[in-house]
Design brief:
94 residues; globular; mainly beta; 8 strands; 5-stranded mixed sheet
């Protein structure tokens, strides 16, 4: 299949396309980025030294929907758009 990875951070947006036979959002993220995770690889703490803190966190979406379980557990499907957004906790409610 093919998936699109979008990373929104600090005023910039990066978009990449990936081909996969089997994969997870965490797997494609780790392909081109340095990633630190929390809670048994279920949550992203840092992407390329942009790290969550008391006010900001990495939000994770697939096809514009919040995924309520870990980034290593979701199995990618053909056409998925995976987005990681560095967002202020106060504005993260959609």
């Amino acid at each position: 299949g093919e998936a699109t990875l979008v990373i929104k951070s600090l005023g910039s947006t990066k978009t990449e396309r990936f081909k996969f036979t089997k994969g997870t959002p965490l797997g494609i993220l780790k392909y081109n980025y340095e990633v630190k995770t929390l809670l048994n690889d279920n949550f992203v703490e840092c992407i390329d030294d942009v790290c969550a803190d008391g006010n900001y966190m990495w939000l994770f979406y697939v096809n514009n929907k919040t995924i309520n379980y870990g980034v290593k557990r979701y199995e990618l499907k053909d056409g998925d758009v995976v987005m990681f957004e560095f967002s202020n906790k106060d504005t993260s409610e959609k």
